[in-house]
Amino acid sequence: MNLDKEKELLARGYKLIAGIDEAGRGPLAGPVVAAAVIFSNDFKIDSPELALINDSKKLNHTQREKLFSLIKEKAVAISIGTVGHHTIDKINILQATFQAMNQALNTLSVQPDYLLVDGHLKLPNTDINQEAIVDGDAQIFSIAAASIIAKVSRDYLMTELDQKYPEYGFAKHKGYGTKLHLEMIKKFGPCPIHRLSFKPLSNKYFSKKRDLRK
């Protein structure tokens, strides 16, 4: 991972570049969380720890935790946006992801002048110059940093929700459709943080158990 993209933009006259990414598009439960991260225009990858920054999915739990703290220490500004399951069910996961990204962008302590967004779609509802980059979290330093902030922040939220709904094992699988999670849904039915628009929760078998949502 390098800063080539950020350096290219700085050379073009941009000063504050925000990397934006999300975590939690695929799970059956819980929110989608987006993060925006800005580093200074003279930022350098000057340590072996920083050099490890990568797509959060390619890092283990310990690496993500360490990098989460390091990014918070080194970044000029960090913000997250969180959109819950009710909104996801109402407007769909893509629109909920955009909403979370816009929340993160709009609550940054400084205003960026260029956005690097993970994925193939640009962020709507903003006039800031931007670029959408497929697999950006595995190529662009700022986006990778945002992916770590989003992932760790969401993991914390799901661990907290595990205390409220311990029978589902959210601290282990973070709401993803693992074998354990599906077994617990079959046993107990959906709980109040499940996304009822997602399969298999949207099928008739599970809809019969929705009276268990309290």
Low-confidence stretches: none
Q: How would you name the CATH homologous superfamily of the largest domain? A: Ribonuclease H-like superfamily/Ribonuclease H
Order of helices and strands: HEEHHEHHEEHHHH
What percent of residues are in strands?
A: 5-15%
- In CATH terms, what is the fold-level topology of the largest domain? Nucleotidyltransferase, domain 5
Neighbour order of strands in the largest sheet? 3-2-1-4-5
Total beta strand runs: 5
What is this entry, summarized?
The chain has 214 residues and is an alpha/beta fold.
Report on the architecture of this protein.
With 214 residues, this protein is of the alpha/beta class. The protein has 2 domains: 4-164, Ribonuclease H-like superfamily/Ribonuclease H (Nucleotidyltransferase, domain 5), CATH 3.30.420; 166-212, no CATH class. The protein has helices spanning 4-11, 48-51, 61-74, 85-91, 93-106, 141-164, 170-173, 179-188, 204-207, and strands at 17-23, 32-38, 77-83, 114-118, 130-133. The chain has a 5-stranded mixed β-sheet. The protein is globular and about 55 Å long. The termini are far apart.
Q: Could you outline the blueprint of secondary structure elements for this entry?
A:
Elements (H helix, E strand, L loop, with lengths): L3 H8 L5 E7 L8 E7 L9 H4 L9 H14 L2 E7 L1 H7 L1 H14 L7 E5 L11 E4 L7 H24 L5 H4 L5 H10 L15 H4 L7
Parallel strand pairs: 1-4, 4-5
Antiparallel strand pairs: 1-2, 2-3
Helix pairs in contact: 3-6, 4-5
Keywords:
214 residues, alpha/beta, Nucleotidyltransferase, domain 5, 2 domains, 5-stranded mixed sheet, 9 helices, globular
